[in-house]
Amino acid sequence: MSSHTHISLKSQDRLDLSDLTTKGTAKARTITRAQILLLADRSQGERRTHKSIAEVLGCSTNRVSTVVRRYTEEGIRGALYERPRPGGPPKIDGVTEAHLIVLACSDPPEGRKRWTVRLLADQMVELGHLDSVGRMTVQRTLKHNQIKPWQVKSWCVPKPSAKFVEKMEDVLDVYARPYDPRFPVVCLDEASKELRGTPRVGQPVAPGQAAREDYEYTRNGTANIFLAVEPLAGKRSVRVKDRRANIDFAQELRRLVEVEYRHAEKVVLVTDNLSTHSVNALYEAFKPEVARRIARRVEWHYTPEHASWLNIAEIELAALATQCLNRRIASKDELERQVTAWQDARNRQRPKVV
Prior knowledge:
Blueprint: H1 11-23, H2 28-40, H3 50-57, H4 61-80, H5 94-104, H6 117-126, H7 135-144, H8 162-175, E1 185-197, E2 218-230, E3 235-241, H9 246-260, E4 267-271, H10 279-285, H11 288-296, E5 298-302, H12 312-325, H13 332-349
Parallel strand pairs: 1-4, 4-5
Antiparallel strand pairs: 1-2, 2-3
Helix pairs in contact: 1-2, 2-3, 2-4, 3-4, 6-7, 9-10, 10-11, 12-13
């Protein structure tokens, strides 16, 4: 005779268990226990053994037997959830946790650059909030509250002067214009890319293993990437240059005006305030009559200082970096092939920024 315990679920219990497994918001082990109970239920005419249930769910027979037994002895909550574990009360209660959060969000002591877990633990004891506390206890509390006092991010917070607001509103007004092919709005920006080669062949991705590459690499110089995007048309063009001097910017601007948008009356250009982004670059690169001809076909708008994020070309450069550039690329030729492939694919998708 079988020694296994058999159960017949109550109607409400079966509904609650079915709802729990369907939503999938509970912990994995809780869902597994609910599935065990549903499969072990004999009120629906099924007569599965504990071994067959274990095979279906990929767990042990002992686990199935324990869950079923706990249901018969303690009910549905006893079967699904852990019993309270023995041990002392937590060292950090609500009040102590509040003190720790306030401390972690304050300036560190003199002579220290930033808070560390050990420093916070020592300071909590020194201030009399706790008699003793371990680093792991402090670390778990900080993690629970998403506080990382040892991290510092650089951030430029400009003072919104009258000049800042004037430039910001000017750029926003440009972006609000309706699409007009005679006056295309084009955002232009640039970024550098360090060229790095890998001396030894890596290993491709495999089941259970990430792709691997040697930590050593060769430095092959840098290249500069110009990216122009027409937000309302969902069109962008990417060009690779050896450097980022005035002449390079002037050549890219001439290409936009006289090749890319040769049929437009004027190119409405948005750039940041980099020193090379000026009409002066045209006169340095070309004869005065050529520079003037190009300049007359450009309606120039600058983002405010410390607000180059208003240039939509920066959004495209971020997409280019994430989707294409964040890896080792050994040469300028390879870089040109990769960014051209990215440009063509993205232009086929024609994502717009409106």
